[in-house]
Design brief:
CATH topology of the largest domain: Rossmann fold
CATH superfamily of the largest domain: HUPs
Structural class: mainly alpha
Shape: globular
Order of helices and strands: EHEHHEHHHHEHEHHHHHH
Bound molecules: adenosine-5'-diphosphate
Strand order of the largest sheet: 1-2-3
């Protein structure tokens, strides 16, 4: 049986297992924070949760070994500085859990290449100048393995990841349908957890903010570097005195992340009235970013002095992750006919 039907039972019948990954391909940015990280932090103390720094995924775009190493620790520092509590959930490095790449190979055999060719994220990344290597092409299959190796059922991600997550849902069903008794599926069909009110967050050039596109405003950027980035946000050339449309403005889209509805309505009114320039909006945004992350910035500086602690957190996280993944992979091997002699 190789169709996607019948559907497996909804993931909600058992206690949720929350999983999500973040690429160490550059410093984390506002898109990562408001699209994903904030949810990760909200959920990690409420449920069993596994958050991984996806260094294999980052290899699809980062060519320098030194940079990959550095970014990997930077992401760990960012999480801890922003409030991740290692006593509540597991934070670890993807490549510390070899079960994931093993599962990816098994999944490769359940999905035709034509399915991957339709991937929007792949096409967009290649159009943006990334090398069309096989890693980039197979990215969603590795992502599916990442999720399902831990029996993940809830995946807090940004709105940009909706299609990629379909791969994990498809592969969960295909594996269950091909290898499991109908009434005893192995994998839950994972559900994305996307915040309704947050759409894809634009970068300084108006495209999706992404480490791969060089258009980010970093969570921990400060001083002149932060100011330069905020001031470089692309706007149209409507003169200061004339009315402006907040709905099409990249600065307004970012301001909305930091302000409540009342303040948003006030700013929108100022835009429409004229006499309020993009420079004013950018100044306000700059101040809001500085204030919002001030405490986390201070905590990050302290943590930078404690590399051994950060390593310990990641090591313990990987231990917990392997403890979760090993029995699942053992079932995968048995069900799919992989004979093991040890
Ligand atoms: P990047 O594209 O910067 O490499 P990742 O692929 O590491 O980001 O994504 C990590 C998480 O951040 C994902 O859950 C993703 O959905 C979210 N995310 C990344 N960029 C954005 C964005 N511009 N808007 C909303 N969410 C985003």
């Amino acid at each position: 049986m190789d169709s996607d039907a019948p559907p497996s039972p909804p993931a909600t019948e058992t206690a949720p297992v929350v999983v999500s990954g973040i690429q160490p391909s550059g410093r984390l940015h506002l898109g990562n924070y408001f699209g994903a990280l904030r949810q990760h932090l909200d959920l990690h103390s409420q449920h069993e949760a596994y958050y991984f720094i996806v260094n294999y995924h980052a290899m699809t775009s980062v060519q320098s070994a030194e940079q990959l190493r550095q970014h990997t620790f930077d992401v760990a520092l960012d999480y801890l500085a922003l409030g991740f509590d290692p006593n509540e959930a597991a934070l670890f490095i993807q490549s510390d859990v070899p079960e994931v790449t093993e599962l990816m190979w098994i999944f490769f055999n359940l999905i035709p290449t034509s399915h991957l060719e339709k991937g929007v994220a792949y096409k967009e990344k290649v159009e943006a100048g990334l090398s069309p290597n096989a890693g980039l092409f197979n990215y969603p299959v590795l992502q599916a393995a990442d999720i399902l190796a831990y029996g993940g059922s809830v995946v807090p991600v940004g709105a940009d990841q909706k299609q990629n997550l379909e791969m994990a849902r498809t592969l969960a069903r295909r594996f269950n349908n091909r290898f499991c008794p109908e009434d005893d599926p192995l994998f839950p069909v994972p559900e994305p957890h996307i915040l309704d009110h947050v759409s894809v967050i634009p970068g300084t050039d108006g495209q999706k903010m992404s480490k791969s596109y060089g258009n980010t405003i970093g969570i921990f950027d400060e001083g002149d570097a932060l100011k330069e980035k905020v001031m470089s946000i692309v706007t149209d050339s409507t003169p200061l005195d004339e009315p402006k449309d907040p709905e099409t403005c990249n600065v307004f889209a970012l301001l909305q992340l930091f302000t409540d509805e009342a303040r948003q309505a006030e700013i929108a009114k100022q835009y429409r009235a004229g006499g309020y320039g993009y420079g004013h909006a950018k100044q306000e945004l700059l101040g809001l970013i500085q204030d919002h992350f001030a405490d986390a910035r201070a905590r990050r500086k302290e943590l930078e002095q404690r590399p051994d602690y950060v390593r310990d957190v990641l090591r313990e996280g990987a231990k917990a992750a392997r403890t979760k993944a090993e029995p699942i992979l053992e079932q995968v091997r048995t069900l799919s006919g992989l004979v093991r002699t040890r």
